[in-house]
Amino acid sequence: MSAPRPYNAPDTDAPTGHREVDPVTGYDTTGHDWNGIRELNTPFPRIVVWALGLTFLYSVVTWVLLPAWPTGHTYTRGLLGLDQSEAAVERLREVDAVRQGWLARFDDPDFTALAADRDLMAWATPAADRLYQDNCAACHGFAGGGGPGFPDLRDTAWLWGGDPETVAETLRHGINAPDPDTRIAEMPAFDWLDRSERRELAAYVAALPTGDATHDSPAGFLFAENCEACHGAQGGGGLMNGAPSLADAAVIYGQDPGTVMETLRVGRRGVMPAWGDRLSAAEINLLASYVSRVSENGKGGRE
Amino acid sequence: MVGTLTRSERRIGIVLSVSLGLLGLGMAAGARHGVMAVHGMMALGLGLALIFHIGGALYDEPEPAPGRSGRYYDAPTRFGIGMTLLWAIVGMAAGVWVAALLYWPEATPPWPWTSFGRLRPVHTTGVIFGFGGNALIATSFHVLQRTSRARLADALSPWVVLIGYNLFCAWAVTGYLMGSTQSKEYAEAEWYADLWLVVVWSVYFTLYIRTLARRNEPHIYVANWYYLAFILVVAMLHVVNNLALPVSLGAADSFTIWSGVQDAMIQWWYGHNAVAFFLTAGFLGMLYYFLPVRSGRPIWSYRLSIVSFWGIVFFYIWVGSHHLHYTALPYWAQTLGMTFSVMLLVPSWASAGNAIATLNGAWHKVRDDATLRFMFVAAVFYGLSTFEGSFLAIRPVNSLSHYTDWTVGHVHAGTLGWVAMIVFGAIYTLVPQLAGRETMAWPRAIEWHFWSAVGGTLVYVIAMWNAGITQGLMWRTYDESGALSYSFIESVRTMAPYYLLRTLGGAMFLGGAVICALNCRATMRAAGGREDAADHPLSLHPAE
């Protein structure tokens, strides 16, 4: 820092007269001095004037063309007459028109005919995949593999059925969803059973998939008495009433003794949302054929 | 602190501390439980601590030597710089942590206060208000006194400003952790904290004006114009955006008086002018002082600095609506925001150009002196991010960039590259002077800091540019069939490598800030007796 000069020194801050000249730039200083800070009296750069003019011109042209200035109750509309809501709606209509070109085919749920039309399916499957990712993956997983509480859609174990008609029905009305025609599937709580009985049952259920369960046992009788009505003889399922088979490898919540104990204590009532209000009939049919194909292909889902 | 106050000032200080304690007690008693009660207890605790601190020294510590009005009052600046560094570490660490959470969301601990939604505003408030705000206040006191050649108008109000302001920041940040928020970005703190800030800010403004009125220079240096614009406009923005009705006087909840699209417009008028007057005008004040001081060069063009000041102040106020392109905001308001943003580029670049041209004749110093290099890089990033800002404000460009991480990249080019760099430049200039030394304690560490800061910024910004443009393209690409080509979740998963890089860049930047804090502490501990004989007010004003 150079030593400050008192402000009333004769050679400073005079608009004219003697000023210091900066040796580097050759410009003189304004004469102001703040604790050693000085300013050059550089002329206003031309390019800044030009740039200001240019951006101002851009703005004026834009104001003339587009909606720009408010005038009390209304605003200047602009020569192009653009309206952003109209533009947005128009654009949506355009995209929708392209989509309807092929999506309309799915209005008619003749799934055999649809599946036979290979060109159509090749065209539609990527769209179905995106629809699945955006609406279903959050619960059923990217690849349809499900997770605790959410069934696997790729396997052949079904609660309600995996043919496209049934899947479409499940999608339309959901399971335990706030929809008048929803599918109802409730696993009641068995908290009224003795804890020791529940423990035996749990061990029995956990052994079902591996085939190690002894059916001729107290637990086997308890099961026949309380559970068969929904889960089928020896837990074999197949009633398509929303209660899963307990004898296959597929699980929703888990079939280890601990989780089964929890299931018996609190009951289960998984909710699958109803999509009838959110997706169009054609989209639901598209998804239904997509889901049942993913399952047909076994583990041939995405990834 | 107390040693710089006269006995009567200490007594007033105790009265003020008692009032603060009573205010806190009132809040705690009125609220009984919840966030406001905790905040009341915090104020009460602070009040009591101050009473003991001042009271303990009331008669024991000697009074300042009679000649104190013949020197500048730097104790508040020293305290402010300390708080700046503390908040830098808190705020940046929170930022690095939430950046990591975006890459490893599973790492979120099970406690509510550690959730992303609560920690994110801790980061933004911590760095903008905690780090940036303290740096602005601390340097403004220094610059104001030097360029006015006058001592601060009184000795108590700088402390009221700094302590009160930091109480506001602490209330805000702890409130978010407890789940209290107004849900307005960069204005999340609840109504009583907002009112408190109004009081603090009025004291700040009054102090600034009173000191300026005592100046011994005929002209007001341009840095002070910028600092004043910062103080004045931030007050206006803060009051208007935070107008709200509390649910009750004993609860930390309120409803904003704005609704619908007006609320959105007010919020972004505030939000963008927080960028303009908090994160730009104040820091330009810093640049206009510390750059010529450090480089020993005169400001390249006096005229340019005046024209860009008025250009920036005039154009900025209009541009907030560019945050609401393609929304329910009327098209005409969007057009105005867009065009004024484009015109704003010229004064912004004029400022950046003026700063860089000032370095003509000092390029060898830029090469050798990391402190000056911080300021040079700041000016370059200022130019870069103002160009980017005007570009992103153009509606069709915005349709690609909006809601993507490009915006995040843009903000960080400005905050890391420009705001933080100029702060570090100022700190490295100021701290040796405050410590009465020629240089920092570890001059080499400034180089390390410089390179980790520049490297961190580049990694961060480049990762976010790529991330944002990728996202924008993925969201707008359609198949021939008229279906979107990518599901949303795919665009999220694509971000993983960029989010990892961002975390890395942020960590580098944080590392630099930690080095800086340690270096400053070592410097203050090794204080010397060096004094600049010329560094004093011009004529003596009694300090009342």
Automatic annotation (TrEMBL), chain A:
Chain positions covered by the region annotation Disordered: 1-26
| Primary location recorded for the protein, binned into one broad class | membrane
> Which residues make up the binding site for heme c 2?
M187, C227, C230, H231
Subcellular location(s) of the protein: Cell inner membrane
Q: Give one GO molecular function term.
A: heme binding
What does the UniProt cofactor note say? Binds 2 heme C groups per subunit.
Q: Which SUPFAM superfamilies match?
A: Cytochrome c
Q: What pathway does this protein act in?
A: Energy metabolism; oxidative phosphorylation
Q: Which residues cross the membrane?
A: 47-69
The superkingdom listed in its UniProt entry is: Bacteria
Q: Which cofactor does it need?
A: heme c
One GO BP on record is: oxidative phosphorylation
GO cellular component terms, alphabetically, are: plasma membrane
Q: Could you describe the subunit structure of this protein? A: Component of the cbb3-type cytochrome c oxidase.
Q: What does this protein do?
A: C-type cytochrome. Part of the cbb3-type cytochrome c oxidase complex.
Query: What protein name is recorded for this chain?
Result: Cbb3-type cytochrome c oxidase subunit
> Source species, please?
Thermohalobaculum xanthum
UniProtKB/TrEMBL annotation, chain B:
UniProt key word Nucleotidyltransferase: no
Any GO CC annotation of this UniProt entry:
plasma membrane
Q: What top-tier enzyme class does this entry carry? A: translocase
Tell me the cofactors it needs. Answer: Cu(2+); heme; heme b
* Occurrences of domain Cytochrome oxidase subunit I profile (ranges): 85-515
Which Pfam families is this protein grouped with? COX1
Any idea of its EC number?
7.1.1.9
This chain's protein is named: cytochrome-c oxidase
Organism taxonomic ancestry:
Bacteria, Pseudomonadati, Pseudomonadota, Alphaproteobacteria, Rhodobacterales
